[in-house]
Task: structure prediction
Amino acid sequence: MTYESGRPMKSRSPSPRNTKGTIWLFAYGSLLWEPGLTRFRHHPALLRGYHRSLCIYSYVYRGTKARPGIVLGLDRGGSCRGMVIELKGAAGKAALKKIIARENVTDVYRLVTVNAELLAGKRQRVLTFIADREHGQYAGKLPPRTVLKLLRQGKGKKGRAADYLRETVARLEALGIRDRRLEGIGRAVLMKSR
Result:
């Protein structure tokens, strides 16, 4: 299956032409600290045209419909520093299938092909998950007070929304990626939880 830039993901998972192929995946949030992906090679990358944003209401993993949390999505505009993960061979293909199932439990993300900039200015076509602005879970840009409330109240199948944010900020810092907005929100969450 091929992906066109900005086109939504089809219901079936991608299938590279052979198991020796490499799938390039741009990670910007929880995929940076997903344990199942640590065995694959990672490359620092810059994605232009999208920015990392707490713009997705979480009804399953980090909240419920009655008490939603908030999680990251790539939203239009700006740029985002992250990592490109090389998913190689049969193991890479299997990992991508699991990632798609996990990320699209409510179909709030669209899997698209975009260009990322690797070191030395090399461009690479990559898959990534962007926020579906037409989906009911798309929150858009919320006031900071609302974001803090959602982070504090959100608790779902994979834990608390506040812990999701802390894990993401810690991993970004460990990778040398600064996201001052997320860091500031993380500090505010910590102060309120004391």
In short: The first strand starts at residue 22 and ends at 27.
